[in-house]
Write a structure and sequence with these properties.
Strand order of the largest sheet: 10-11-14-17-18-19-20-21
Largest sheet: 8 strands, parallel, barrel
CATH architecture of the largest domain: Alpha-Beta Barrel
Number of domains: 3
Shape: elongated
Helix content: 25-40%
Structural class: alpha/beta
Distance between the termini: 86 Å
Length: about 650
Amino acid sequence: MRNPVLSASDSNPATRAALAKRDNALSDHDVYLFREGTHARLYRAFGCHLDEVAGQSGASFTVWAPNAERVSVIGEFNGWDAGQAVLTVRQDGSGIWEGFVSGVKRGQAYKYRIASARTGQTMDKADPYAFFAEAPPATASRAWSLNYEWGDAEWMQSRREHNALGAPMSIYEVHLGSWRRGETNRLPTYRDIAQPLAEYARDMGFTHVELMPITEHPFYGSWGYQTTGYFAPTARYGTPQDCMHLVDTLHAHGIGVILDWVPSHFPTDAHGLAWFDGTHLYEHADPRQGFHPEWNSAIFNYGRNEVRAFLLSSALFWLDAYHIDGLRVDAVASMLYLDYARKSGEWIPNPSGGKENLEAIEFLRTMNQAVYRDYPDVQTIAEESTSWPMVSRPVHSGGLGFGMKWNMGWMHDTLEYVREAPINRKYHHDRITFSIWYAFFENFVLPLSHDEVVYGKGSLIGKMPGDTWQQFANLRLLFGYMWAHPGKKLLFMGSEFGQRREWTHEQGLEWWVTRFPEHAGAQRWVRDLNALYARQPALYEQDFDGAGFEWIDANDRESSVLSFLRRPGTGPPILAVCNFTPVPRTNYSVGVPGGGYWRELLNSDAAIYGGSGMGNLGGVEAAPIPAHGRSHSLALTLPPLGMVLFKSDVSGESNR
């Protein structure tokens, strides 16, 4: 069966008029913005759009291939015959090919067959703007529509308060395919996982779920970080509507959704973006700029306007179509530095002779400005592993414009410290205190992510020294210190109950271990930390302001004890005291800013968490005995490898 192709150059005026009136028609202004690199909604016209034109049902196809001699749509609707649906190139020099192909039905697979004018090669490519794809290992795109009846109006109207910088934010990082599997170990679907994940996250007190990349990717073992479909959720777990249902369900339970998004590199699979029209279209031609040696993947050419518009449109797409509440941008450091993971002579300096990728910097700033312009109630979060300045500061102030940044320095120093045997920690005391020196340079998220429990690094519980009891005490202490430290929180799935096995994407988490008291205790500790965190503004309100933190004593290295205050905008502070040794300490003096009774809010050594039950019997009365430069002090019992949190029952407090 032949599929007629209608194009804007059709000789029939009525046909041309019908094509121009389509909702997805590409206007001259769209083309101008595309070529300028500022178009943020290209997905509305590019790609495949099911439609009806001049009484014929089918689909519009639009693709950018400026160095092609011929572009055809091949698919299930025409027997994969390249001679039946040949697109027409626009006569404006944009390199855009388009046409309406009749007979295309929802769900049918298709590709573009591109004959290169430069090399004479013919390539079959998936649609860069496809909304859906065949489930891997198949590689074709599918004709699809994104109609869905959302039920999250209440969440969308109120999410600004949930996503605000001054709100509590405790993020549960999830790999969908391995969070929970049945006895057959099959991959779950988006719908399988929606209700259990939403209920669990809410029960545990997490405010947000961060999804490791769900954008379509050919290699499952890349965990989504090698993306080919920048507008398509992976078909491994179901349809786009199934994915929307997952987000909708999380929102119905009051859980925000952050998407891990990868604009830094892409795989070189034959059906993907690489060598798209027989030239290096999306990537740089010179491997010193266009090939990433560490990840064996291609690097986007951020200097090409059309590529920037493609990525910009992808970022906005997930916010528009999937109601995503935030984008965690992966591998930002690799974008910022031309010499990232390269030796001398393996990279090309910028025009000023420096190593900064000026074009990538400009893209990131443009992307963040566009996101916050259209969605001031979401957040963008940078995974940036260097000391690049002002990552989470506004563009108009000279920053990159992100809302927040992962604090990789805190993560590395803290994990190195807690791995030490407690007897040696006094020699490494600066590791655990150093983070406060720079804690307010950026709007930081404290991440204990998937990266810390793979590639032979072992699980979090496996990093802890000592016997089983000490390991779990150390783990609870780590979490307590993390939740009291300035910055939003991120914890990778399984860590909250102390899974011992290193994470693998091929299996579900070891949920069965939560039957054991030590694992159940760790899980309950995280739940109670989250509950307290959400109730106490002192623990989140001034996360990014130095006024929200005050050392009591950062220098007791001999005892490996830290004590500090967290302060809200108004009201009494919360006192945190951490004992990083297994030695219980009685009558330990801690200066406090006022008298009265200080209630013990949480104690990681409580028996319900698997601890020894040592504590302060619910609280301590402050004595008018000066200590640490303050007017009063508490004589505390510090449990072994434990942390305690206190709050004054006195509404006011005296000066130091």
